DNA sequence: AAATTTTTATACAAGTTTGAATATATTGAA
DNA sequence: TTCAATATATTCAAACTTGTATAAAAATTT
């Protein structure tokens, strides 16, 4: 549940309401996380329930839903550090949904498999190019923290690995059909 | 939801009940999927509800829960191919939960970050060694399909990428703290 | 042969995720 | 200025996941 880590990490800097948290996640983590806004509100109420954050303001403008501003508590700061250390220590195995597709390759015709593989190779190549440009922009912008570049590199290294593996797969496609 | 793909793919070969499906998943896909047995029964009832599979036998031995044997239907075979092609075409971005940990690196002391990173490097190295042995075994066993080796290679390539990235991170750790 | 552990088999409650629904304010275009 | 589009802000029902509970047969130990 890295969503609790994110929210506590963000609220660790300043009190915010749900929508602002959503915007920060989208702006700074949008490229490498996939947190749905529905989950943010659920996590906020859970964290509030357990006393890790607390409501400091309910700001109603006109008849719009009230902005509920949350602030991190002392126990929340502890919980944040606990979750952060846990995230640094635990090594969850990465799951590749595409492995499932490969597992059932025998139900595809050779032509189909060939075509799909080429499309994947093309897509990954595009993503690598995109990340390259993205990284150059980031390097030139002094406001982007260095960690952001490390995180882009993370994706870059794995996309390279993916590309090489896909190329091997294409080369040996006859073995699998 | 690759669980529907898995179940349809397995039932595409022969009728089976839930527990047998669980065993097949554990035996053949245990290394690279993470399907909990609870989800299998949920998926089975959903697939039955939509007519993609049907109950062909309810075998009660004594007072144990009845074995409910499912068989794929014509519409299930169609659905299987649809899901398989979808899985081959779509390129879901892989999420690395560790990125979140890196994002908040500034809340860690240098000594801590250093130690955690070295532990991760050690762990990934172990996994690479394990996969190497695993692959050798698989190559010598004529009953293991070639796709299985391709899937191991998939993890291997990505673990290598992870290792190199972690080594870079360790080298440049001072930039991030 | 009695007791313990493991394996077989599923149901289900509790927790979580998701996206659609809701309601209003603000911005920009015609 | 008035209409449409976009941005603000959250709630909630429905779908899904997870692990625990249940129950008994089979295998193993004592």
Mean pLDDT of chain A: 93
Task: Write down the Rg of chain A.
Answer: 21 Å
Q: Give the class of chain A from helix and strand content and strand pairing.
A: mainly alpha
The CATH homologous superfamily of the largest domain in chain A is named Winged helix-like DNA-binding domain superfamily/Winged helix DNA-binding domain
Counting copies of identical and different chains, the oligomeric state is: homodimer
Instruction: Give the amount of beta strand of chain A, in percent.
Output: 5-15%
Task: Looking at this protein, list some descriptive labels.
177 residues, homodimer, DNA-binding, 67% helix
Give a description of the structure.
Two copies of one chain form a homodimer. Chain A is mainly α and 177 residues long. The first copy, chain A, has two domains: 3-89, Arc Repressor Mutant, subunit A; 98-175. Chain A has eight helices and three strands. A three-stranded antiparallel β-sheet of chain A has the order 1-3-2. The model of chain A has no long low-confidence stretch (mean pLDDT 93). At the A-B interface, helix 1, helix 4, helix 5, helix 6 and helix 7 of A face helix 1, helix 4, helix 5, helix 6 and helix 7 of B. Chain A binds a DNA duplex (30 and 30 nucleotides) through helix 2 and helix 3.
């Amino acid at each position: 549940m890295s969503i609790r880590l994110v929210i506590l990490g963000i609220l660790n800097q300043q009190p915010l309401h749900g929508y602002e948290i959503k915007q920060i996640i989208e702006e700074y983590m949008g490229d490498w996380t996939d947190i749905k806004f529905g989950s943010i509100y659920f996590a906020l109420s859970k964290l509030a329930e357990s006393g890790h954050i607390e409501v400091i303001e309910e700001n109603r403008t006109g008849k719009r839903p009230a902005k509920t501003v949350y602030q991190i508590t002392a126990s929340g700061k502890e919980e944040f550090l606990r979750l952060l250390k846990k995230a640094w220590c635990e090594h969850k195995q990465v799951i590749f949904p595409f492995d499932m597709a490969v597992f059932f390759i025998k139900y595809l015709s050779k032509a189909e498999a060939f075509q799909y593989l080429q499309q994947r190779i093309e897509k990954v190549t595009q993503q690598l190019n995109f990340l390259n440009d993205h990284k150059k922009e980031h390097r030139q912008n002094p406001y982007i923290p260095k960690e952001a570049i490390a995180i882009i590199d993370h994706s870059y290294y794995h996309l390279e690995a993916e590309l090489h593996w896909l190329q091997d797969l294409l080369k040996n496609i006859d073995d699998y059909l």
